[in-house]
Amino acid sequence: MTLLKNSIISIISLLFISCGSNTDADIVDIQKIVIDQQEVSIYSTDRETTNLLTATAIFNDNSTKDITDFVTWNSSDTTIATVIKGTIYPGTSNGGDSNITISYQSLSTPSILLHSKKLLDFNISILDNDINSTGIYPLQALGNFEDNITKEIETNIFWSSSSDAEITIDDNITSIEIIEDTNITATLFSDENFTQEILYKVE
Amino acid sequence: MLSLLLLFTSLYAQSTLYFGTNYGIIDEKFVKGTDARSSSQALTLNFGYGDINAYAVNLSVDIIDNTTKIFSENDSKKYALNIALIKAFNFHTFFNPFFKAGFGSGTLKIDRTLQNRISYGSLNLGTGFFIPINNYFDLELGYKYSYLSYERIDNIADKISYKSHQNRTYFGFNIRY
């Protein structure tokens, strides 16, 4: 009987413990996601472009969070450019526009414009300090773009040589090993009509 | 192995099917994800097989009211399914103390931008006593503790994990045959 009485007292005590108060949580929910930029532009021969595109989640308490690395970036024309975690990788086309959006599950954003600046013409050279002897030398291509800017061509360029000279790319520097007179050719955007050629003579 | 054999032997000894229901009051204190607290009520439907004086296996369905806003502005009732092993004792008085242990899983609707439902798992421990009225009918008075681990809330960059301690006192009845 004593056990029953103690048990009843215990359970009634627990009943009072169970009657706690209600305290709501601070509910933070996503209102929308946005791309922070309205329009961006790149050069069609840049290797990659970072820090131009960022994405933000806006919450119902007006707080924000950088979500650049967590959303899926979509490009309407991947031959112009693709975007991964906010980094823009130029496509295989020489200039043009692409619409960029982001999505995450059921959320998506209106598109923004990504403009790839067109390469108009270019020149190639071999950086040998006018030695004209055998050896390994860097190759360089400088392009003139639609905005009258001249800058180094980093991608969408294919180097070839008429001899057995070996062309290598190491740490994003393209080099050629000269062993004899060589015709060096650079082709842009896989377009046979968009090439430049120089003759390197070994003295 | 021997203890398992004893358990199954005991389970089949004077076992009966039973069903019942109970009503309880719940206090849920969140310990991860938020420090919110929710006091609500629960209705449980029990189905089981076992001996009121020894072991029983119990399957229960919980319908838990939810008046507190935890995950969204419109959290729904919780529905849970639990399974437990009950060990009762017969001290030849008019009540049989028992202990129970088990686990379960539940779900509730929520109203968030990225999620409209959240699930949880629970580990459950309980104690109390049965008060047999006759061979077919008994009252049940008990206390149940549950540790709840909720599915993560997705805020894209953050995945928030909610965990809580739940204390419940309840009373109800069972019909055995």
Write up this protein:
- The complex is a heterodimer of chains A (203) and B (177).
- With 203 residues, chain A is mainly beta.
- Chain A folds into two domains: 30-117, Immunoglobulin-like, CATH 2.60.40.1080; 119-200, Sandwich (Immunoglobulin-like), CATH 2.60.40.
- Helices cover 8% and strands 48% of the residues of chain A.
- Chain A has one helix at residues 2-18; strands at 30-35, 39-43, 55-59, 64-66, 72-75, 81-84, 87-90, 96-104, 107-108, 112-117, 119-126, 135-145, 150-152, 157-161, 167-170, 173-178, 182-188, 195-200.
- In chain A, β8 and β9 form a beta hairpin.
- The radius of gyration of chain A is 30 Å and the shape is elongated.
- Chain A starts with a helix and ends with a strand.
- Chain B has 177 residues and is mostly beta strands.
- Chain B has one domain (2-176): Beta Barrel (Porin), CATH 2.40.160.
- Chain B is 7% helix and 64% strand.
- In chain B, a hairpin with a 4-residue loop joins β6 (117-132) and β7.
- Chain B is elongated.
- Chain B starts with a helix and ends with a strand.
- The interface between A and B is large, with 37 and 41 residues.
Helices and strands in order:
The complex is a heterodimer of chains A (203) and B (177).
Chain A: H1 2-18, E1 30-35, E2 39-43, E3 55-59, E4 64-66, E5 72-75, E6 81-84, E7 87-90, E8 96-104, E9 107-108, E10 112-117, E11 119-126, E12 135-145, E13 150-152, E14 157-161, E15 167-170, E16 173-178, E17 182-188, E18 195-200
Parallel strand pairs in A: 2-10
Antiparallel strand pairs in A: 1-3, 3-4, 5-8, 6-7, 8-9, 8-10, 11-12, 12-13, 12-16, 14-17, 15-16, 17-18
Chain B: H1 2-13, E1 16-32, E2 37-50, E3 55-64, E4 78-88, E5 96-109, E6 117-132, E7 137-150, E8 153-154, E9 159-160, E10 163-176
Antiparallel strand pairs in B: 1-2, 1-10, 2-3, 3-4, 4-5, 5-6, 6-7, 7-10, 8-9
